[in-house]
Amino acid sequence: MVDDMLLWDQDRANYIRGQLSDGVGREIGINGHGSNSTGTYSQNNAMLSKGNWGTPGRGRRTLGTSYSNGCSSSQQCQYTVTYGDGTATTGTYVTDRVTLGPNIVVPNFRFGCSHAVRGFFSDQTAGTLALGGGRQSLLAQMARTFGNAFSYCVPSPSASGFLSMGGPTVATSFFGRTPLIQNPRNPTFYLVRLQAITVARISLNVPPVVFSAGSVMDSSMIITRLPPTAYRALRSAFRSAMSMYPMTAPRPDLDTCYDFLRFPTVRVPQISLVFDGGAVVQLDRASVMLDGCLAFAANPSDCTVGFIGNVQQQTYEVLYDVGGRSVGFRGGAC
What we know:
Layout: H1 2-19, E1 70-71, E2 77-82, E3 88-101, E4 104-118, H2 138-141, H3 143-146, E5 149-153, E6 162-165, E7 176-179, E8 181-183, E9 186-192, E10 194-199, E11 202-203, E12 215-217, E13 224-226, H4 228-241, E14 247-248, E15 257-258, E16 271-275, E17 280-283, H5 285-288, E18 289-290, E19 293-294, E20 296-298, E21 306-308, H6 310-313, E22 317-321, E23 326-330
Parallel strand pairs: 12-21, 13-20
Antiparallel strand pairs: 1-2, 2-3, 3-4, 5-6, 5-22, 7-23, 8-9, 9-12, 10-11, 10-16, 14-15, 16-17, 18-19, 22-23
């Protein structure tokens, strides 16, 4: 199960990098420079071409030739959306008034009513909530009502998380902040820049320029993906601190794995992510390791856009202050 998730994670990373490409195989990061390598679904690209459609989820049909993009003479509009994991949905694109409470009404709200899908969609969810920077996202359409910000907390397995529209659940003074950067080629994605990484409170010998391509903040990405130079330094320091435990076979994308069966307690060194502007995310054991492995991987190159995954975001309230151009972190929130 974990291996399948990690393979899905690889595909998602490649898809997002493709979305951030300049169209000739080079990736555009924060500084606009490219790398020869190949990011969350793009709300700006909501109208996409059809592909080869497979088995649908329960109660929905596979996509067929009767579905296409655009509007008919009868003013009925169709949409097709492809997501980062290869799943897709198509149906009718509509406008309606959304009532969220006695005094909260959003007119002319645009959304899709799905008729058919490609890939797996859970029967336990009612739909997909778009919170990216594209014009058709829920955030963009409700910015005048709630404000151009949202926050969430990814919980540990035994806890509950939350989503808050319009801003954080507590005063913003409780948050460490880092600048939010959006790529002009695809503003859907929210990027931040790391400055340093510490292991057992010792900063790795990695110059800040190594992180200059930036990292996508992605609640669906599982593990954090770093420039190879930074990852090698992190792996070396982590393995040194964990030398008393026997290593075991690697997993897809995870090359530092351990066998803890003979150990009633395991001591894992604290890892902290230090962001531009001084925000620090201190990771506990559950945010450092995944199924006995170091939950970090290397990007294809130092010039490739990285990712901050949801394993490392656990228990932090992550605030996306899009209007204020910053991302905030508050520990112990869920």
